[in-house]
Amino acid sequence: MTKYIISLDQGTTSSRSVIINHRGEIVDINQKEIKQYYPKNGWVEEDPLEIYESQIYTLKSCLIKNNILPDQIYSVGITNQRETTILWNKKTGKPVYNAIVWQCKRSSNICDELRNSGYADMIHKITGLILDPYFSATKIKWILDNIDGVRDEAEEGNILFGTVDTWLLWMLTDGQSHYTDVSNASRTMLFNINTKKWDDDLLDILDIPRTILPEIKPTAYHFGNISNSIFEGSIPIHCLIGDQQSALFGQLCTDIGDIKNTYGTGCFTLMNTGEKPVFSNNGLLTTVAWEYDNRCYYAIEGSVFVGGAVIQWIRDELGIIKNASESNTLAKSVQDNNGVIFISTFQGVGTPYWCSNVKAQISGLSRSTKKAHIVRAALESIAFRTMEVINTMELDSEIKISSLKVDGGACRNDFLMEFQSGISNVDIVRPTNTESTALGAAYMAGLYSKFWKDIYELKHLKKTDRTFKPSMDSKTREKRVNEWSKAIKKAIGD
Ligand SMILES: Nc1ncnc2c1ncn2[C@@H]1O[C@H](COP(=O)(O)OP(=O)(O)O)[C@@H](O)[C@H]1O
Ligand SMILES: O=P(O)(O)OC[C@H](O)CO
């Protein structure tokens, strides 16, 4: 009987189930979009039940479509949008509030208070993170402080917290497992990156009861089995991993200095720094990459909050394209951006500036501006922000970056890849299989369960689709980078 690894990839905009065979090939993917709610300016929420149900729906329908029986599932890995915060009542199993999504800025005031009380440096030293509403800690505090009765229930031990990995695991195991892994824990701003434990000082400062937190485990571990009420048989869950760390592993960036950028809703560049955390003074985050086989690896990470999401906005709100891939054809239909600069900072700006109150801007519009110029400028903005992250990484790691592995939905856009290569003067390496996030969790689960022998076996399975070589001359590059730098600094009021 043929066996498969299943990767459950719960992303910001959709849930995917991916079936992977022993050759590391994707047999099939099923995907379902999930709804985002924007109840106030800067607020972003999702429905935790929709997150779970969409995930189960894609899994069941994918198995049925491919005539795969539960017995054929060797192991399951879960990878997820990170930081997104869910609190639920452990007796009823019901969420006490919507999931507060990583993009949500509602806890900016809590961050300001912490900053004004002088905690920013301490938080950076303990967690490797920059004090920002992006991370889970202040979102948890917001729910405890603002939703009636939740703090009292938490103090009575009836409330559980989880990022999306923990929530899915708890639901899939029928409330048996309340765990997270080190990669997800390192995104909460409650995890001490040096001791690899929840940090009691931070819990005190934020007034968060320890009882709501999941137990922290390595990335590869036997987290429990999918409940018989969902699937008959005993399907083991062998991996939980944050989606960006998963993409790093899926690209097999397993050596120091290996680097990837994922062009999804946001863009996240991660560089493997080996078995010790490297701290940045220039706005990069220090994060756990994964813990596997008793070895913990770290990464530095640059965050761009709006990546492919700008194309989604152009599609859904401006309505000037019907689908994301049309942006490639339109951008290529014009010679240049005709002076249009799109600062796509709808959700604040991350690395290297870290400023949560910036608005997005389109400048340089004239009577000759065509919709193609706006679309082209939007794609350029994704590449310019990624360029800023790459420059910061070179500064902090003292490693010259000459090649970047890419993945995620928007890396299928050839214009974007060509422009990225030109503006950053790097080779862009796009794999045949761009679902690196799903692959990472599958590889991890497959190594743990001995479906694959080791990383070397996996390295033989990888294929490159295309390498984009820089074709922009240095004079143009310098001019374009200067224009961009002036525009973004103006936007953030520097
Ligand atoms: N061909 C394309 N060109 C530009 N952007 C694209 C393209 N295809 C998808 N995208 C963008 O990529 C994002 C989806 O990528 P995905 O990796 O699925 O995201 P996530 O995991 O964050 O939900 C969307 O924001 C979409 O607008
Ligand atoms: O869902 P993605 O792929 O945009 O990833 C979101 C990140 O995990 C946020 O930190």
Give an overview in words.
Residues 4-250 form the Carbohydrate kinase FGGY N-terminal domain. It is an enzyme of class 2 (transferase). GO terms for molecular function: ATP binding; glycerol kinase activity. With 494 residues, the protein is α+β, with helices and mostly antiparallel strands. It has a domain at 4-233: 2-Layer Sandwich (Nucleotidyltransferase, domain 5), CATH 3.30.420. It is 35% helix and 24% strand. The protein contains 16 helices and 23 strands. It has helices spanning 48-65, 108-116, 120-127, 136-146, 150-155, 164-172, 182-185, 200-206, 243-250, 309-318, 326-332, 371-397, 414-424, 436-448, 455-459, 474-491, and strands spanning 4-10, 14-20, 26-33, 45-46, 73-80, 86-89, 99-100, 159-162, 179-181, 191-192, 197-198, 215-217, 220-225, 236-242, 259-263, 267-274, 285-292, 295-304, 341-343, 361-363, 403-407, 427-431, 464-468. It has a seven-stranded mixed beta sheet with strand order 17-18-16-15-21-22-23. α13 (414-424) links the parallel β21 (403-407) and β22 (427-431). The protein is globular. The structure holds adenosine-5'-diphosphate and SN-glycerol-3-phosphate. The site of adenosine-5'-diphosphate (ADP) has 19 residues, from α10 and α11.
